[in-house]
């Protein structure tokens, strides 16, 4: 996120696209509600009429997978109407003239034919956002979980650059992270192309730096992504450690995923519960939960915060850092003899420029947003205020392209996926709560009532939901939240494995799966009548 969460209350216009914020980020969404109460205008682009759409001043019911068409048309309107920020563009960007010419071809009328949003509404959205004194963009996985996820983000960045809505209070490009320490994981080097602090592994300066720090030669090439590792399982990848992820339920194309994990010679899973993935493992190492460890989280707004153990870990459970250190030491690796998480965090601060001014004691109060480049630096709640890291913001000449798979006669319905308020991710944790089970006992396929009528299916009946990868059985729920021709389900329930269906393609740069778009067909399942018991007849 370029701006802190507190800034959600400050824009004049808020543009939310690909984010079901009130369900996926309900606490943060309270700030957005305050902004609306204060008078901010809300634009929401989403295929479903989610709660956020009901709150919107302008709702754009976009067809799944067509975000780029909408965004390119908005850029077209901003250029056509002369609403771009000439001073900001001249002082802080490059590639403007080429981009300005590029977007001439993407009219709102062109976009309407693709994304099914009226051209007039596209124009209104563009004018509202560009004309605002403070315009802010918020997005989540609805933008990135596509084969063109990187291009979608670049296209959003174009809108911020051409209007100057970045580097100031109440503006910015703000991706909402899905879990409490996803940002911190990336910061710490849990990416195949970066050392800690987003330092590219291919840079010779970085290579020399980390060779000196670690006292050994380092790899000179990018590592494999998880997608690549699963594809190579049993061939070039023979052993795997999965730490805190229920891969079998969360990853697309479940059949391929399970085959990959079973092809390994040795699988280790570290987790707090015996998940579906852990049940496939040769060894399960019991990890401590967040309330049982001392450590550091960095959240979605880049705020670096200490976490403190409230209770000791049960039984033989140990913190993840301890388990990994022990594995490394028993493999004969040096430099892993840590006694406390403070040593690990201080090493991160020493080696990472964005953390360099921090240490274990300084983050005790949780007041710092990285980058904190030196001791005494106050932190950086708002990025890009005085300039961009690489000098100038670059306009990207992106295009629209169809999803990896599109609907046809055999698979005529769009399936899109997401999260639900009552459950968290694959329910590894929330699925063990009786109260949550009472609120959300099973997954249901959201279908428009008119589609159900056309298909001869009653609300609550079972259906077979099939894609090019397989079929599952699921109950339907009639709701006007999903538009005609589009159905929705979450991937939270292992007994309703939506990931059997998904997995048609990946973004070529990030290898993020296209989980938001999957052509399917819906078939009724007629359950045989169950004869009443003698006791029931007597009653």
Structure write-up:
By secondary structure, this protein is an alpha/beta fold. It folds into 4 domains: 172 residues, Dimethylsulfoxide Reductase, domain 2, CATH 3.40.228.10; 128 residues, 3-Layer(aba) Sandwich (Rossmann fold), CATH 3.40.50; 63 residues, Dimethylsulfoxide Reductase, domain 2 (3-Layer(aba) Sandwich), CATH 3.40.228; 112 residues, Barwin-like endoglucanases. The protein contains 20 helices and 21 strands. The chain has a 6-stranded mixed sheet with strand order 17-19-18-21-16-20. The C terminus is likely disordered.
Write the layout of secondary structure elements.
Blueprint: E1 13-17, H1 21-24, H2 26-38, E2 41-45, H3 51-55, E3 58-60, H4 67-80, H5 86-92, E4 93-94, H6 96-102, H7 108-115, H8 119-131, E5 135-139, H9 141-144, H10 149-163, E6 173-175, H11 182-187, E7 194-195, E8 199-200, H12 204-214, H13 226-231, E9 239-243, H14 247-250, H15 254-263, E10 266-271, E11 283-286, E12 295-298, E13 303-307, H16 320-330, H17 341-351, E14 368-369, E15 393-394, E16 413-418, H18 434-439, E17 444-447, H19 449-455, E18 462-466, E19 471-478, E20 486-490, E21 518-524, H20 534-538
Parallel strand pairs: 1-2, 1-5, 2-3, 4-15, 5-6, 9-10, 10-11, 16-20, 17-19
Antiparallel strand pairs: 7-8, 12-13, 13-14, 16-21, 18-19, 18-21
């Amino acid at each position: 996120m370029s701006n802190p969460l507190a800034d959600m209350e400050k824009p004049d216009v808020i543009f939310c696209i690909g984010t079901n914020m009130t369900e996926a980020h309900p606490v943060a969404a309270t700030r957005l509600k305050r902004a609306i109460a204060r008078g901010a205008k809300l634009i929401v682009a989403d295929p479903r009429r989610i709660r956020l759409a009901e709150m919107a001043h302008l709702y754009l019911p976009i067809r799944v997978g067509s975000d780029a068409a909408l965004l390119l048309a908005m850029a077209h309107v901003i250029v056509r109407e002369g609403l771009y920020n000439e001073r900001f563009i001249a002082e802080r960007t490059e590639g403007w003239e080429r981009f300005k010419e590029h977007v001439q071809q993407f009219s709102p009328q062109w976009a309407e034919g693709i994304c099914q949003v009226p051209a007039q509404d596209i124009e209104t959205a563009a004018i509202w956002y560009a004309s605002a004194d403070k315009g802010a963009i918020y997005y989540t996985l609805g933008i990135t979980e596509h084969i063109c996820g990187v291009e979608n983000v670049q296209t959003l960045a174009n809108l911020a650059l051409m209007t100057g809505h970045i580097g100031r209070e109440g503006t910015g490009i703000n991706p909402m992270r899905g879990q409490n320490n996803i940002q911190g994981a990336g910061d710490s080097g849990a990416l195949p192309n970066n050392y800690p602090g987003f330092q590219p592994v291919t840079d010779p300066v970085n290579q020399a730096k980390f060779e000196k720090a670690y006292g050994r030669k380092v790899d000179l090439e990018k590592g494999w992504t998880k997608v690549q590792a699963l594809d190579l399982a049993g061939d070039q990848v023979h052993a795997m450690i999965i730490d805190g992820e229920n891969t079998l339920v969360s990853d697309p194309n479940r059949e391929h995923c399970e085959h990959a994990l079973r092809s390994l010679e040795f699988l280790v899973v570290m987790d707090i519960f015996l998940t579906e993935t852990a049940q496939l493992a040769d060894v399960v190492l019991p990890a401590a939960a967040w309330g049982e460890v001392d450590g550091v989280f960095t959240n979605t707004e880049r705020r670096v915060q200490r976490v403190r153990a409230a209770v000791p870990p049960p039984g033989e459970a140990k913190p993840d850092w301890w388990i990994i250190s022990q594995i490394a030491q028993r493999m004969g690796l040096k430099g892993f003899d840590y006694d406390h998480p403070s040593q690990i965090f201080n090493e991160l601060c020493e080696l990472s420029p964005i953390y360099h001014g921090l240490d274990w004691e300084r983050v005790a109060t949780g007041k710092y947003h990285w980058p904190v480049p030196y001791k005494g630096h106050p932190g950086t709640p708002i990025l890009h205020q005085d300039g961009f890291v690489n000098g100038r913001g670059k306009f990207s000449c992106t295009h629209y392209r169809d999803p990896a798979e599109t609907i046809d006669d055999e698979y005529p319905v769009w399936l899109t996926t997401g999260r639900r308020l009552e459950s968290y991710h694959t329910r590894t944790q929330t699925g063990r709560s009786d109260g949550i089970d009472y609120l959300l006992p099973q997954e249901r396929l959201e279908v428009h009532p008119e589609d159900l009528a056309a298909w001869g299916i009653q609300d609550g009946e079972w259906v077979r939901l099939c894609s090019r990868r397989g079929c599952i059985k699921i109950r339907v729920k009639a709701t006007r939240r999903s538009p005609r021709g589009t159905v929705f389900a979450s991937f939270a329930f292992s007994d309703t494995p939506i990931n059997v269906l998904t997995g048609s393609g990946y973004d070529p740069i990030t290898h993020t799966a296209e989980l938001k778009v999957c052509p399917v067909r819906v078939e009724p399942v007629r359950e045989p009548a169950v004869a009443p018991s003698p006791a029931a007849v007597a009653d």
